[in-house]
Amino acid sequence: PLKLLQPKTVPKKLRTSPKNPREPQIPRSLIKEIFRHFAKMPVTRDAFKIVEKCSERYFKQLSNDLEAYTHHAGRKTVEAADLEVLMRRQGLVTDKMPLNVLIERFLPLEYRKLLIPVAVSGNKVIPCK
C-alpha cells in the first residue's frame, strides 16, 4: 500500500536581509525645546527641519573631533580636558569665559552639581574624583 505524502511545513524564515545599523539620534523634542528656549519664538516646520539637520551635523562633527583628540593623546576614553580643548578651539571657552561659567549659565542645577566641585560640611567635596 502506498502512503500518502504529507506536505512538509516550512518554517518562516527570519528576516535575513542585512540591515544598515542606524546611528543614534538626538530626540526631536529635545532639539525643539532647546531651540525654542534660545529663539524665544515659534518655529515653522520647515525651519525646524533645517535646525534639526544642522544640529545632527554639528554633533556628528563634535563627536568626530573628540574622537580625534582622544586618539591623538593615545587614549580610548574621552576626558573633560578633550571637551574643554574643543570648546576653546570653537571660541566658546576663553580666558574671560571659562568652562565653569558656561556650565553655571546654561545647565540646570542637577547637572551643575555633577560637573562643578562643591565643598560641603565635613570637608567633603562633591563630586568626588
UniProtKB/TrEMBL annotation:
Its main location: nucleus. Keywords: Chromosome, Nucleus. Residues 1-25 are annotated as: Disordered. Pfam families: CENP-T_C (PF15511). Residues 23-117 form the CENP-T/Histone H4 histone fold domain. InterPro entries: CENP-T, CENP-T/H4_C, Histone-fold. One of its GO terms (biological process) is mitotic cell cycle. It is found in: Chromosome; Nucleus. GO terms for molecular function: DNA binding; protein heterodimerization activity. GO terms for cellular component: kinetochore; nucleus. It comes from the Eukaryota. Belongs to the CENP-T/CNN1 family. This is CENPT protein.
